[in-house]
Design brief:
Strand content: under 5%
Oligomer: single chain
Shape: elongated
Distance between the termini: 33 Å
Number of strands: 0
Largest sheet: none
Radius of gyration: 24 Å
C-alpha cells in the first residue's frame, strides 16, 4: 500500500531528476524513420526506443522523463505558493475576525465549490494555443495556486482563531505588539 506508493514516487522523482542521464534521446529530436514505433516488448518494437515513439518520431521514454521534471516542478511551486498564500490569508482572517474573516472565508468557500480540474481546463482553454513553455508553466502554476489556497486558509484560520484568544497573545497585545508581529512571531509558528 503506502510503501509501494512511496517506492513509485521515489522512482518517478529520481527519473525526473536524472532525466539528462537516463533519457536515451533528446525529447524533441524526431526520428522520421521510426514514426509510431511500438514499445520494445511488442512486435515491431525496437530496443532503441524502449517505450516506442509518437506520431512524429519522438522517443516516448525521453519525453516522459523530461515531462516529469515539469510536472513535479509545477506541483512543488504551486503547493508552496498555495501554502504561503493560504497560511497568510487564513492567519489574517482568524486574527482579525469580523468582516475581514467573513470576506476571506466566503471567497475561500466560493473557490472551494468550483470543480478544480474544470476551472484549470477552462482557464487554459481561454489562453492562446501557442505559448512559450515558460509562460504555460507560470500561468498553470498561478491557476493551481489560486484554486489551492483555500484548503490551507481554512485550516490555518481555525487554529489562529482559537489561539488568538489565549493569554500569551493578549499579553503580547497589551505590551504593544502590532498585529503583524503577533501573527508572525506568536500565531503562525
Amino acid at each position: 500500500g503506502a510503501l509501494a506508493g512511496l517506492v513509485v514516487f521515489t522512482l518517478v522523482v529520481a527519473g525526473a531528476l536524472l532525466a539528462g542521464v537516463l533519457a536515451p534521446h533528446d525529447p524533441i529530436e524526431q526520428f522520421r524513420d521510426a514514426l509510431l514505433t511500438p514499445p520494445a516488448w511488442n512486435a515491431g518494437g525496437s530496443p532503441r526506443f524502449p517505450l516506442g515513439t509518437d506520431e512524429v518520431g519522438r522517443d516516448v521514454l525521453s519525453r516522459l522523463l523530461y515531462g516529469a521534471r515539469t510536472s513535479i516542478g509545477l506541483a512543488l511551486v504551486a503547493t508552496l505558493g498555495a501554502v504561503l498564500i493560504g497560511a497568510f490569508a487564513g492567519a489574517w482572517a482568524g486574527y482579525r475576525g469580523g468582516w475581514v474573516d467573513d470576506g476571506i472565508m466566503r471567497t475561500a468557500d466560493f473557490v472551494l465549490v468550483l470543480p478544480v480540474i474544470y476551472v484549470v481546463l477552462v482557464l487554459r482553454a481561454m489562453l492562446p494555443l501557442v505559448l512559450a513553455p515558460q509562460t504555460v508553466f507560470l500561468l498553470v502554476t498561478v491557476i493551481f495556486i489560486l484554486v489551492g489556497w483555500p484548503f490551507v486558509a481554512k485550516g490555518v484560520r481555525a487554529i489562529v482563531a482559537v489561539e488568538a484568544g489565549k493569554e500569551y497573545v493578549q499579553a503580547a497585545r497589551s505590551l504593544g505588539a502590532s498585529p503583524l508581529r503577533i501573527l508572525a512571531v506568536h500565531l503562525i509558528p
